[in-house]
Amino acid sequence: MRTEDVLAAIATGLWRWDNASGTVTLDGEAARLLGLPAEPAVLPEAAARSRFHPVDWNEINGIVNLAVAEGTLAEARLRVMDEDGRVLRTVRSRSKPLLNVTAEGRVDYELIGTIQEIAEPQPGTTAAHTPITGDWRRSREAFLLDAGRALAEARSTAEVLRVAASLSMPGFNPDGLAVFGVAGDRLSIIGHHGHGAGDESPFTDMPLDTDYPAAEVVRGGRAIYLPSPEDYLRRFPVTWPLARRFGRESWAFLPLIVAGRTMGAWMAAFKHPVSFSPDERSVLTTVARMLAQALQRAGVAESERELTTGLQRSMMPQLGPEIPGMTLAARYVPTGGGLQVGGDWYDVIPLPSGRFALVIGDVQGHDVRAAGLMGQLRIAVRAYASEGHRPDAVLSRASRFLSGLCSSQESDPAEGPDYQSPRFATCLYVECDPETGLLEVARAGHPDPAIRMADGTVLMRPTAGGLPLGIIPDTDYPTTRFPLEPGETMMLCTDGLIETGGHDLDTGWARLRAILESGTHDTESLEKLADLLVQAVHGPSSHHTTGPLADRREDDIAVVLLCRESADCGCGTSLSHPARPARRTVLTVAQAEPERLAGARRQVRELLHDWTDPEQVDAAELMVSEMVTNVLVHTDGDALLVAEAVGELGARRLRVEVADASDELPHMRHPGEMASSGRGVLLMEMLADTWGVDPRGAGKSIWFELYERSKPAEDQAR
Question: Taking the model in full, what pTM does it have?
Answer without folding.
Answer: 0.59
